[in-house]
Structure formats: structure tokens, C-alpha cells
């Protein structure tokens, strides 16, 4: 059960985060080039540390729900009939 919940919550989080990062960086590069005539540079370590820290915190929150999930969906609670 825990593996399925991890797959259903963590995988979409990571996929959406990756797509969002890519779209944000491309949009920033296009804006800088077209409006300000600046060249785009890849963000520094502070940006990536913030992104990874946020993803780590999100995954930790998901993992923190696993014990509660085991208690409310365990074989002692779930009765078949």
C-alpha cells in the first residue's frame, strides 16, 4: 500500500516539478533575449538548492503520512464482510 501511495503522489510531484522547471527556464530565456537583449545564464547553486529543498520537504511530508496510512488501512481495520 505504501509503495502505491508513493507512486501516486511522489511521481506526479516530480514530473510536474521537472516540467515546471524546464518551462520556467525556457520562458525566462526567451523573455531576456526578446525584451531586454540579455543572454540567459543557468541559475546558480542557490536556485537549485531551493528547488531541491522544496522537493525534499514535499517528499518528507508525503513520507510522514505513511504510518497513519498503515494504521487506517491495515488488515485489522479493513474487514471483508
Task: Give a quick precis of the structure.
78% of the residues lie in helices and 0% in strands.
Task: Please describe the topology of this protein.
Elements: H1 2-36, H2 45-64, H3 66-73
Helix pairs in contact: 1-2
- How many E-type strands? 0
Extract low-pLDDT stretches.
Answer: none
Q: Helicity range of the residues?
A: over 70%
The residue-averaged pLDDT reads: 89
What general form does the structure show?
elongated
Structural class comes to mainly alpha
* Binned strand content: under 5%
Total individual domains: 1
Radius of gyration, whole Å: 20 Å
Order of helices and strands: HHH
N- to C-terminal separation?
Answer: 20 Å
Largest sheet: none
Specify the number of helices: 3
Structural write-up:
The chain is mainly α. Helix content is 78%, strand content 0%. It has one domain (2-73). It contains 3 helices and no strands. The protein starts with a helix and ends in an 8-residue tail after the last helix.
Properties at a glance:
81 residues; mainly alpha
